[in-house]
Known about the structure:
Layout: H1 4-22, H2 36-47, H3 54-68, H4 74-88, H5 90-93, H6 98-123, H7 134-157
Helix pairs in contact: 1-2, 1-7, 2-4, 2-7, 3-4, 4-6, 6-7
Amino acid sequence: MMRRRTRLLQAGxxxxxxxxALLPLPDAIAPFRPFWMALVxxxxxxxxxxxxxxxxxxxxGLLVDVVQGSLLGEYALRLVVIAFLLDRFRxxxxxxxxxxxxxxxAALLVNDWIVTAIIHAFLGQPQxxxxxxxxAAVGAVLWGPVHALLATLDRGRR
Length: 158
């Protein structure tokens, strides 16, 4: 069971990821914006998977939907898929070296891009350009620092 301080750290990191997602970027680099919420959620599912699961992913996704003004349930579905895959392979991924975790996170973020493309295709909305796959690459590169920062804060709280 998560302690109160860990829950506060989890809520704070989710809030920070939400604020980073709202940060305006120039049009030239906007397609390379990492999916911050997926990175933060990935850490919490991998490290505290018994307490952080699909329900929290769904709730956080609905929160992102409301804040971003997107189709209600789009981010919720995307984050639930990510949390499910991470939870499914959690026992293996936790013990991979960080460079292998980077590859797994990159695969998850590319999968997220595919899920988003499918959602938009069903709704008849414009597709994300292939340039936005750069977002998955940037997110994978940032996995190491995000994991190290959250792990340091999490260990300091224990």
